[in-house]
């Protein structure tokens, strides 16, 4: 859980004021509008300035101006821009108003703006921007860009209580494969938790294990037959999966004769019914109906055969099968029989232990391992009663179902909420768990990170909760479903356990690890200097997977392509890690300390490439705020690649504005002051890169 830093904002403001004073800039709007921004960053000073001046010129409300001012996609369109139509100003045409604002606008921080049709484009004074931004980043370090007041019930009061968000994610099924879908849920959920923490929320990571249902009755029988204590302790996830696969094969073989018989009977029954005439295609004449010319004896004979087969089937089905035994066993588990529960409990505990190892590799920790098994029968009973009282449910052949068509949502179809034998379902458990969590934690928001294949399931359970009325409907009002697209194989094919094409988490982590380790070993000198090469290879591998996952919108699927994601070229994890490690190496070689850099004179950064890098670094706080709105990791990632590109164009840039200036290389700097300034700039870039990477859940490496 995150903690807030109550005095941070005041301190930040003081620091910025001191910087401004040093720059001799006093006409900054007494910074009154800065209170619009919960956390103060240089970019906010510019916003405040623009708001103030635009207010003076147009008389528009500061809040309205604040909402209208946008950042630009490309620096050539300015640092911030104002689409004047968004001021909702009656009387003047947008381009006239834009021209008027550009004409009258004056500020020591901002150059003369340009009017571009209905837009006013603001370009910051580069020297002042560098002198404000660089020192701010070097001072705020791993806090730069984040906004810890948003998670408070009153963002302007750091002493007001923090809000709580529960993120439910990962949620694998015990004994079944931990597949790429679970991996995707895990890293997206991990990102959301970090995002909310950085915005000052209290967060709770919840893992809702698939650990209940008849399949655990199947598993128990499998363990009796194929289980091995040592293997269970060694790697429960792997072992239980093997056992589960074997017992399911047995189950399949066992049921094969009955299933074949069923198919045969269906086939015979079909023969009894005369074939239906085919619907004629457009323009075609109706075909004559083939005659059903069976004699009565033949009919009777067929009838007889069907009866015989049905008798055999009945006999087969009455033998206690694995399936039937599993059903009975599960019933005993539901009834809480200690003997029935004992094995299952061990399976669960050992599996969690193993999951924890895997999560640690991904830098992810859960506060609560709940699961389908933890949902209380009495809560499901209570929910069932409410559903009944509200007229939501109906009986159908002994089972209970909801027909959404009768409640204005025909698209959601029908769904079972209780089986004929009275046991609960996945859906029933989700319904009851929702309010249980609220009773336990009183969350302000809960986000379910679930694969899009389950969109209908989530839509159904949310809708049922809404229909159930208060308090259920109030609680579901605080819930969000974050649905993500499917991960496919490199050729874009669906991965399936049956086809043997599912990539398991452990295997894919090991594969990328090995790949990156081989890459590292190719450079012997560097390799020798890496303190923990195995650990570093792991981090690089995981970065590859995560960056690939975050490269598009979450709703879109992608192809799991080991070759592409591990490449050092293109927008990949290794590329970002390399950019970070290179900056670290530069700092080591410069032999400058943080306190040397604290005195960096950023006015010495004059090359266009350097200025553009500063301008990009100044945007980071806005990118963070925007990410909170989109909740999309790609918002962060796109920015980090843009920034890394601005950075790499600095490496061989020459300062054309200054005859004596050399390249932007720290080593060849023309004076000790310039060396410090350049290193200060690169260290600021490293800090922003690290902040962004960590927000995504990546661990930036110092050497590789
Ligand atoms: N509340 C939920 N239904 N969460 C999603 C659970 C995912 C489920 N265990 C699965 O692997 O498919």
From TrEMBL:
<protein>
    <recommendedName>
        <fullName>arginine--tRNA ligase</fullName>
        <ecNumber>6.1.1.19</ecNumber>
    </recommendedName>
</protein>
<dbReference type="InterPro" id="IPR005148">
    <property type="entry name" value="Arg-tRNA-synth_N"/>
</dbReference>
<dbReference type="GO" id="GO:0004814">
    <property type="term" value="F:arginine-tRNA ligase activity"/>
</dbReference>
<feature type="compositionally biased region" description="Basic and acidic residues">
    <location>
        <begin position="281"/>
        <end position="296"/>
    </location>
</feature>
<dbReference type="GO" id="GO:0005524">
    <property type="term" value="F:ATP binding"/>
</dbReference>
<dbReference type="GO" id="GO:0005739">
    <property type="term" value="C:mitochondrion"/>
</dbReference>
<dbReference type="InterPro" id="IPR009080">
    <property type="entry name" value="tRNAsynth_Ia_anticodon-bd"/>
</dbReference>
<dbReference type="Pfam" id="PF00750">
    <property type="entry name" value="tRNA-synt_1d"/>
</dbReference>
<dbReference type="InterPro" id="IPR036695">
    <property type="entry name" value="Arg-tRNA-synth_N_sf"/>
</dbReference>
<dbReference type="InterPro" id="IPR035684">
    <property type="entry name" value="ArgRS_core"/>
</dbReference>
<dbReference type="Pfam" id="PF03485">
    <property type="entry name" value="Arg_tRNA_synt_N"/>
</dbReference>
<dbReference type="InterPro" id="IPR008909">
    <property type="entry name" value="DALR_anticod-bd"/>
</dbReference>
<keyword id="KW-0648">Protein biosynthesis</keyword>
<keyword id="KW-0436">Ligase</keyword>
<comment type="similarity">
    <text>Belongs to the class-I aminoacyl-tRNA synthetase family.</text>
</comment>
<dbReference type="GO" id="GO:0032543">
    <property type="term" value="P:mitochondrial translation"/>
</dbReference>
<keyword id="KW-0030">Aminoacyl-tRNA synthetase</keyword>
<dbReference type="InterPro" id="IPR014729">
    <property type="entry name" value="Rossmann-like_a/b/a_fold"/>
</dbReference>
<keyword id="KW-0547">Nucleotide-binding</keyword>
<feature type="domain" description="Arginyl tRNA synthetase N-terminal">
    <location>
        <begin position="44"/>
        <end position="124"/>
    </location>
</feature>
<feature type="region of interest" description="Disordered">
    <location>
        <begin position="263"/>
        <end position="300"/>
    </location>
</feature>
<dbReference type="GO" id="GO:0006420">
    <property type="term" value="P:arginyl-tRNA aminoacylation"/>
</dbReference>
<keyword id="KW-0067">ATP-binding</keyword>
<feature type="compositionally biased region" description="Basic residues">
    <location>
        <begin position="271"/>
        <end position="280"/>
    </location>
</feature>
<feature type="domain" description="DALR anticodon binding">
    <location>
        <begin position="576"/>
        <end position="704"/>
    </location>
</feature>
<dbReference type="InterPro" id="IPR001278">
    <property type="entry name" value="Arg-tRNA-ligase"/>
</dbReference>
<dbReference type="Pfam" id="PF05746">
    <property type="entry name" value="DALR_1"/>
</dbReference>
